[in-house]
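Reopening this ticket.

The earlier resolution said the output was attached, but the attachment link was broken on my side. Pasting everything inline this time so it's all in one place.
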Amino acid sequence: MTAHGTSLPAETTLGTVALEQDAAALDEVWRDRPGFWGWLTAVDHKVIGKRYLITTFLMFLAGGIEAALMRTQLARPENTFLGPDKYNQLFTTHGTTMMFLFAVPMMNAMGIYFVPLMVGARSIAFPRLNAFGYWNYVVAVVFLYVSLFANTAPDAGWFAYVPLSGPAYSPGHRVDVWAQVVTFTEIAALVAAVNIIVTTFKMRAPGMSLNRIPLFVWAQLVVSFMIVFAMPSVAVGSTLMLAMDRAVNTHWFNYTEGGDVLLWQHIFWFFGHPEVYIIFLPALGFITPIVETFSRRKVFGYTALVMSNITTAFFAFGLWVHHMFATPIPELGQSLFTAASMLIAIPTAVQIFCWIATMWAGRLRFTTAILFILGFMFTFVNGGITGVMLASVAFDKQAHDTFFVVAHLHYVLLGGAVMPLFGAFYYWFPKITGRMLSETLGKWNFWLFVIGVNVTFFPMHILGLNGMPRRVYTYLAATGWGPLNLLATIGAVTIATSVLVFVINAISSWRSGEPAGEDPWGSSGLEWATSSPAPSYNFLHTPLVTSRHPLWDTTVEQPVVTGLATDHREVLITTAFDARPDARHEHPTGSIWPFYLALCMGVVFIGSIFSPYFVLGGLGLSMLGLFGWGWQGSRATGPEIVATPKSITEGI
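Inline output:
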C-alpha cells in the first residue's frame, strides 16, 4: 500500500492490515442477513431508521395528496368534486396521517438513525425492540389505508371528539379504526423513546459527559421523556375508554349515562399539545448542527439552548386547555392557561436569538440546508405570532373552529417542523447514502416550498377572520370566500411541485449523485467520524470524546477506545453522568420475533374491534413470540477496555 506514491513503513502497513481484518470481522458479526429473511429479521438501527424515514415520507406524500384533493374541492363554491362523506374521511385521514403517521414517527426515525452515531455507540440500546416498534407502525399504516380504500376510514376528525365519535353518532367501525391506529403508533413512539433515552444515558462514548452531548441528542432526549409522559394519555383514552364505550357500552364519555364529554378533550389535549412540541423540538435539534457547520462557528449559548428545550417541554404540559377556551372552563383556569400559552414563546425565542448570534458572528455559506433554516425562522415566527393571538381567550372565542386556526396550525407545523426537516435531509443525506443532493434542484425545492406555504396558508387567516369555518366541504358563492380559496389551492399546487422536485432530486442523487466522502461539509459531530454511509458496526473503535466538537477541536488524531470483542456483538456501557466505561453488553442478533409479535399485536387490537376472542387468541400467540425473543445465550467477557490513539489509516 502506498500513500501519495510513497511506501509506508512496515509497522504502518501491518497496522493497516490489522484494521482491515478487524473491520471485516466486525462487518461479518454486525451486518444483517442477506435476502428476504434478512430483511424481515434486520435489527441494525440504521436499517430500521432508513425504513422509518422512507415509510414516513411516503405518509407525508399520502397526506399531501389528501390535502390536494380537499383543496381542489374548496377551490370554488358549491363544488361537487367530493361528496361530504368522502371529504370527512379525507380530512380525518389527512390529519391522522400527518400527526400520527408522519410527523412524530419521522422525528423518531431521525433519532433512531443518528443518536447512536452522534454519541459514538455501535448500536441502539434495544435493537429488537426497535424493530418491533417499526413493525407496529407498519401495521398502523396498512390498517388505516386499507380502511380508506374500503370506504371505512375514520370520519370524525383526527382528534375524534365525543359525542361525535361515540356509538350514537358514529355507528360502524370507522372510529374504531382511528382508535386502534393511534394505539399502534403510540406503541412505536414509546419504543423509540425508551431506546433513545437508554442509548443516550448508557451508551455514550467515554468522555461525552452531559455537558458535551450534541444539541441534536439533547432535543431527542427531552422529546423522548415527553413521549413517555404524554403518549399513555391518548393510548388509554382511545383504547381503554373510547373503544370500550363503543364496543362494550362503558360510559366514560356518554353524558346520558353519567359520563363526561369534556373528559375526552382533557385526555386528548394533555397529549395533543405536547405532541406539537414532540414534533417541534427535534426540528430545533436539526438546526444547531446545520447553523454551526455553515457558519463555521460553534453555537452561541449551548447551555441556554439546552435549558430552553427543557423549559419548553415543561411548559408544553401546562397549556392544553387553550384548545378548550370555547368550553365552560372556569375563567381563573382560562387566565392561567393563557399565561402559560404566552410564556412558552420565550424559550423558543431564546433559541432563535442564539442561532442568529451564531450566524451573525460566522461566515455563512448559503447552501440549501441553511436556506431552509432561514425559511423556518421567517415562517415560524409568523405562525408563532398568531399562536400568541389565539392564547387570548377573547380572540380565541372569535376565531375558534375557523380557518384562522387551520392557518396557524399549518404555519407552525410546516414552518416549524417540515422546513427544518428538509434542511436536515440536505445536510444528512450524504451520511445516509454516501451521495450529495443536487444544490440546484435543492434551491428550486426551497423557493417553491416557502412561496407555496405562504400563498396557501396566509389567505386562510383572512378566510377565518371573515367567518369561514373549518371542516366544511363546500360553501355558497355569496360568502365571498371563493377567490381566497382558489389562491390557497394554487399555493397547494406550488407546495406539491416543490415536494415533487425533492423526490426527483433524492431518487436521482441516491442512484447517481456526486460521491460525498466521509465528511463533505467539514462538520464537527461524531456521526461524521466514520464512513458515509456508516458501516454496520458504526465505529471500528469507539471514539474518546474530549470536547463538544470532537472533529473541530482535535488537533491530533482522534483518540479511541479499544478492547471490545470482534467475534460477537459487544457494546460498551458507560456511566450516565460522566460517560466513564462501566460494563460490556452482548447485543442480540437479528430476529424474526419482533415481526411476529407485531403481527400478534395486530390480531389483538384490530381483532378487538370485531370480537373479544381475537384478543385472547392474539395474546396466546404472543406468548410464543415472547419465549422465542427471550431465548438468547451469553458469552464470556472480552479483553480489557483501554484508551489509545487512533491507528494510522492513511493510504487505505
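Reporter confirms the inline version is readable. Confidence is low (pLDDT under 50) at residues 1-12, 646-652. Strands lie at 2-3, 6-7, 542-543, 560-562, 570-574, 581-586, 642-644.
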